[in-house]
Each structure stands twice: as C-alpha cells, then as structure tokens.
C-alpha cells in the first residue's frame, strides 16, 4: 500500500530535481525549476491520461457499434444450386438483396426469402393418459 503511494511521489521528485538542474543551467533558480518540473509533470500526465481515456472510449464505442451491427444480421445455411451443392452460411438482410459468392464453384448466387403462415397451436399440458382413460375403464367394469 505504501509502495503504491511513495513510488510515484519519489519518481515525481526525482524527475523534478533533474528538470530543476537543467533549468538551473539556463539561469533559473533551482526551487523555481523544481516547482516548474512538478507542475509540468502533473499537466503532462493529465493530458496523457485524458487522451488515453478518449482513445479507449472511442474504441469501446466502435466495438459496441460493430457488435450491434453483427447482431442485426440473421443468417441461413444454403446450398448452392450448382451440381456441387456446396453449403455456405449467408447473412440475411430484409432491407437489401441477399447475394453471395459460392465458395465451392465461385459463382454469384442470389438468395430469395419465402414467407409462410401456419396456425399456432396450444401445447398439450397434461400428457398422463391414465387419468383420461380411468373413467372409461371404470364404466366398462360395471
């Protein structure tokens, strides 16, 4: 715990000391050079962290947008109509024509989507046939 506090502070002081020595060769007082070194390092560090945070946020947003875009696709495994009948996975979009190039015969293929309707049924919840047959068996025994 103490290392995580003292290591950056020690590094800050050492670098500020070297900056003060360099500025002293230009005629600036050592203590002023030391203060300039500390302030300059803090400003540069904050700029660096801000730029890195911005880059990371932009990359995260780009990845999120690509993930959303990929989820918007739906696909089908389709067989090429050629003699090879090679099967490819094709993303299906409902707002654009669906075409792909067959990886087996290298020919362009169009995919047409057909819709179909069906009556929806209720699932059978009671599958115990003995309960349904028991009254019939009781009537037959009498």
Q: How many structural domains are formed by the residues?
A: 2
Morphology call: elongated
Q: What is Rg? A: 37 Å
Which strand order spans the largest sheet, edge to edge or round the barrel? 1-2
Distance between the termini: 88 Å
- The total of beta strands comes to 4
Instruction: Classify the secondary structure makeup into a structural class.
Output: alpha+beta
H/E series, N to C?
Answer: HHEEEEH
How would you name the oligomeric state of the polypeptide chains in this document? single chain
What amount of the residues lies in strands?
A: 5-15%
Q: Uncertain runs with pLDDT below 50, 5 residues or more?
A: none
Quickly count the helices: 3
The mean pLDDT is 86
Helicity level: 40-55%
Question: For the report, how would you describe the main beta sheet?
Answer: 2 strands, antiparallel
Can you offer a commentary on this structure?
- With 142 residues, the protein is of the alpha+beta class.
- The chain folds into two domains: 2-71; 75-111.
- It has three helices and four strands; from the N terminus they run ααββββα.
- The chain has helices spanning 2-24, 30-71, 129-141; strands spanning 74-79, 87-92, 98-101, 108-111.
- The strands form two sheets. The protein has a two-stranded antiparallel ribbon with strand order 1-2. The protein has a two-stranded antiparallel ribbon with strand order 3-4.
- Helix 1 crosses helix 2.
- The longest helix is centred in the middle third of the chain and has 42 residues, at 30-71.
- The chain is elongated.
- The termini are far apart.
- The mean pLDDT is 86.
């Amino acid at each position: 715990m103490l290392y995580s506090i003292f290591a950056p502070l020690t590094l800050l002081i050492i670098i500020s000391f070297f900056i003060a020595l360099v500025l002293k060769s230009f005629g600036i007082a050592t203590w002023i050079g030391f203060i300039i070194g500390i302030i300059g390092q803090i400003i540069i560090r904050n700029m660096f962290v801000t730029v890195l945070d911005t880059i990371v946020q932009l990359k995260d947003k780009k990845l999120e947008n690509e993930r959303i875009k990929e989820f918007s696709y739906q696909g089908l495994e389709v067989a090429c109509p050629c003699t090879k009948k090679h099967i490819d996975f094709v993303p299906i979009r409902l707002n654009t024509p669906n075409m792909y190039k067959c990886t087996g015969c290298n020919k362009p293929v169009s995919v047409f989507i057909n819709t179909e309707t069906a009556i929806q049924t209720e699932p059978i919840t009671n599958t115990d046939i003995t309960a349904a047959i028991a009254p019939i068996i009781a009537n037959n025994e009498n």
